[in-house]
Batch of 4 targets.
Target 1
Amino acid sequence: MLTPEVLAYYERGGETDRLGEGSGRLEFLRTWDILGRVLPAPPGRIIDVGGATGVYAGPLAAAGYSVTVVDPVPAHVAAAAALPGVSAVVGDARALPVAGDADAVLMLGPLYHLTSAEDRLAAWREAARVVRPGGVVAGATISRFASALDGFAAGSFADPAFRAMAVDDLADGVHRNAAQHPNWFTTAYFHRPEEPAAEARAAGLREVRTVLVEGPFGLAVDRVREWLADPDLTAILLDTLRRIEHEPSLLGATAHLMTVGER
């Protein structure tokens, strides 16, 4: 299950509203946009692994899917289970406590915190195990360059402790908040752009592709807030990101990546 520092990070409750504004809101809208194009039409059964408080599970259930959240944080599970049409259970992405034959499996969080390649492959294999033949698996990852890019945009890179952490991230992808700064992310693994697809293929998935989520637009936090406050500008931003989401030269210039494959 989760290490103590990761569990403590999520028990602070940040997942409840993280996706509500700014770059977090762009992450949500882009993730929802991608899912809307890759998921089979409802009704269908979706396993939302690492689904936290049900930020995606709730809208998916409202759209007509049967959704089960599997999450290692008991408080997350309780919050998700309270949503209409959503069931939830405590569990680990590497050994899912659910039956197979799902129409889709989402991993929109667990790959962040599996720092060993063996554990990440186990999670991909479990997702492939519980999805039906022809079903979809979608996994979100954090970009190898996220700390350096986001730190510069937010001004954190001027802090020597943050800068040392970001440099270590670039070296091997293993992110450690050694300073235990409350506003910095907890222990995680940051993927190079080519890695998630390689992991998915190694787990036996086919038709694998990786797209950027926020892209470089996510770094302009104030401008993102401005555009997302206007429905017409929001539509332009999302359309532009769809047009460039597969561009290989931009896959490193984003906070998050989404990798999709089929069993």
Target 2
Amino acid sequence: MSDEVLYSIGELARRTGLTVKTIRFYSDRGLVEPTDRSPGGYRRYGTEAVARLELVRTLRDLGLDLDTIRKVVERELTLAEVTAAHAEALDVQIRGLRRRRAVLTAVARRGSTPEELDLVHRLAKLSEAERRCLIDDFLSSVFDGLHAHPEFVGVRQSLTPELPADPGVEQIEAWVELAELFQDPGFRAGLHGMAHDLAADRAPDDTTGLPRILADALRTRVGPALAAGIAPDGPEAGPVVADLTAHYARILGGRLDPDDLRRRLLSRLEGMNDPQRDRYLELLAVVNGWPPPDSLAPVLDWCVAALRAR
């Protein structure tokens, strides 16, 4: 005769903290089998049942279904396999919940109408492939006609937003605003014209790629004058304007006379001085997790005023 301790279903309930009804349900499903039955036909459970029920309760608390739990306790699946798969599923669920929370927070911050809520939600839940399609359509329209300039591949890449798999509230907000800019015909046309201007400014004998971006020259040549408080229409601004104009002449390869050169430079700077372009770069930095860009607007304002004064 076995000396194993056997428990009634009531005693098992007291030891595990589960209800009699729950243990009976698990027993009927084959998760914990009775070791014996009393003369009256009541189920009796061995000490192994306590450990099994503790495992079943833990796995249920983690959200596993009963069929999967049965396979674990019957050793058809290892605990490691099941918990790893469940952890991965929870990661997906958590990312989805965070995205939904970010959308709701973004809507609350924007004070959106019901129509805007629908738009924000649709834009935020786009799949990676759908986002890529939207971005490619926008950038293809911006750089349309510039396929002969392979140097623009890098420029295009630098303007490409990459929303992470688990974005924060600020990134969701920035992505939604970017997606709205993508669909603005005027903004598309402005960037398209700016890209073509950059290509048109290449010197005929330039084989080293795109000319130095004017933004670089503005920062190095004009930034110090602005910081020093030099007035754009004052005499001290003259050498700064002359230096910048000479730099632009080198970019063009000396193709224009001085008056046409200044007019063309003024046109380029006015085109660059676009609040929407600055906003795009700000939003791009947020989405991609980059440091915030320095705004060129003050430098551009100074340059435009200085050129117009002459």
Target 3
Amino acid sequence: MVFRNADLPVLFHHADAVAIRRQREAVNATRRQLLLLVLGALLTSLPWRGTVGGSFQLISALGALAYAGVLLVTFRSAGQRAKSHWQLNRSAAEFIKSLSWRYAVHGAPFDSGVGGAAELFATRMEAGLAELRKVGWQDPRQDPRENPPEGADAGRGSTGELITPAMRMLRNKPFAARKETYVRDRLIEQRNWYHRRTVVSRRATTLWSATIALLTLLALLLAVLRTFSVTDSGALLGLLSASAAACLAWSEIRRHQPLISAHSLVEEDLAAMHTAMETMVTEEQWANAVYETERIVSPQHTDWLVRHRS
């Protein structure tokens, strides 16, 4: 049996879509702020002022507009709270996904011997989502400003809408089929995802580190030349400094360096868990093994690693 994201509850797809949209908004807002700051520095460093009418300087006016644009983007971002909504919806999506997998393959606390697993799943799901609502997550089933996911009731979720037919089908499979599906479609998929993110982060770190080093080296060269009065490079020096600072800020915001270490550690843990599941984990140990795997891939675990590896 194959179990993909498409087989997860509709509430997951809604939270995932909102998280992606809000992440794009937050990243684009930061990118616009940094680009406008560099543009403002560039315009104010140009020797040509474009004087109009004897006193009005066109280039300086464009520079002022660039700085005003930074303020406008900042105020707009504060009102939209894109970063906060991005993180909350990502937490909701990953929580729903993890709990759904645990239910479908008999992971703790929904192991084979538990009675009323469907009711327990609905209770755990609603309790977790209630905690997210306390810190600002907007439940589409309760918020009239959001369109509820297709197939979801307006009220609080019932067991029927939270447990998909594919989840029930997988749960009813024998242990060997559940184990094979989980290892292939969840554990290995997540392991590959962390590997790809590590590669992307390494490439981005190399690119931005080289760019920052080059800009700083040019600024150093101009500063030395200016020290000995070889050139008057004050405006260009400011532009290089602003560009290097923008690149550094962007690299820090994207957290490439700490994510390399965090994702590498998670990938190693998943590799060890993969080996254990294939060779040592018995059916009696399966529920706890799934629970531990889901803990490893949780965003909270990754954030903890990032904070301690920064």
Target 4
Amino acid sequence: MQHNRSSSVLFKRLPLAMLVSLAFASTSQAQSLVDMYEMAKSYDAGYQSAKSQYAANLAKADQGKAALLPTIGLSGGATRSDRSQDPRTYFDPVAKTANSNYNYTTQTAGINATQPLYRPANLATYQQSQKALEIAQAAMSQAEQDLIVRTTQAYFEVLAAQQSLTFVQAQKAAVAEQLASAKRNFEVGTSTITDTREAQARYDLVIAQEIAADNDLRVKKVALELLVGKAGAAPLSLSAQAKLPPVAGSNAEEWIAQGEQSHPAIQQARVNLEIAKLETTKAEAGHKPTVDFTLGYNAQKNLNGTSVAALSTNNQITIASAGITANMPLFAGFATQNRIRETLALEDKARSDLENAQRQVAQATRTAYLGLQSGLSQVKALEAAEASSQAALDANKLGYQVGVRINIDVLNSQSQLYQTKRDLAKARYDVLLGQLKLRQASGTLKAEDLQSINALLQK
């Protein structure tokens, strides 16, 4: 019994940094951010849906080639006919008979091919299919960037919740020690019952905070496990010696300029404009001629006769053909003119969509850049506040011991210190996530960017 009480006292007196280390001591089974991302790539339903859509878009893009390639068809058939004619209206001078009722069978088979030579609409359709391939690639890139950010955010939310719980538990231990001290002082008559009740109230409040922090950690872990498809996910914590990287680039305009060239949303809007222009080209092709090259080989076999006369022997005819077919449209009820008007209006819409995408990317990039700068400044301010809060707590503890401070002053200082530590931990994670969100906003985020964050985690 004495051994257990000594261990408990020793645990309460451990430095806070060591408590945090103990909380994340089981790193042998923990996963790094890169590991979590790789698991999410193979499990996340949203990303798998994007991959399937990308594969479908690739196949659809290849369909555009068909309009430029030849079409070949094989045909065949057999027809049974029953010929019957009134003998008063027909007399065969050769057969010297008026009986013209008989059955006959006609068999046909053939192969025909058509190669477009000049079809402007088909060429525009093929060009559109290749542009659609660029849209598919941009959409896939956007899905990858979204998965990177979602994985990192879920990863850091678990770490922040873990640290928040650890800090609350450390605060509970400190308040419990302060409560025990207040009770001892009241028993010997050196303090009032007010100190005990204040400490008890603060202890009860910390218990409620611990319950809430523990539940928040469970919820955050469930969200991460649902994303990566692994039960018992345990992310590596951020190293205590980790130095946050500064904001890359001298101003937001540099990031915006990158976004103009590489952001998937702008790329898609730009390609959509090109596709709209090709749609106008297709509409204008309604006024132009079409030219096709045709080849054919067809055979017809008549059994027991034809529609003209009965035959005593089978008759077979074969026809081989080659030719060029041209077609010139003259009038289609103003359909072509109205179609051109429609496509020109859609061009204007696509142009406006491109401008809107550029504005949204610029705004998101500028917001992310300023947010990251603010986050770094906040981290520095909270680091200074942490040191000041620790000094204030030490001073209040000393003042309480010599009688110039009361118990509530110590409790308030403790609460302020641990709140500052929680805010600082969250701010550090927000900065690292903000680095990725800035790259996402400018369209330059890649999976390799996770390596620099991975290097800041505990080994």
